[in-house]
Amino acid sequence: MSVYNVAAASAANQTYSGFDTVTTKKNNDVSMQDFFSLLAAQLQNQNMMNPVGDTEFLSQMAQFSALSATQELNKSFSNFMAVSYVGKNVTATQNGDDGKPTTIEGIVKSVEFSDGETFVTINDTKVSLDQITKISV
Question: What is the pTM for the complete model shown?
């Protein structure tokens, strides 16, 4: 196993979980598992004549921590923005039962947080934030 293979799998939203096993992740977040997979690959494949120093590992851990904090901040901001949509007229596009896109327009009645995702209710239809295409006052 090389560092490149693990990095390539993580870059494609996939996680290396053993020999020749790759699973696809649901979202674009970098997980602690991704970080430790890359760290383990780096340790296994480092040049023994020129090993990676402690300061480099600490630097990488600090960068990962900052990335993780930024992702959490982004998620909190998205949740805050969703709450501000209540009472506003929005337009959203969803795929219908036939697979064709349908447009939903109406006033946001409520916001729901479920399984790490945020949804708004428009005309009794639950819509994901990424499906909203227009917001009007």
Answer: 0.50
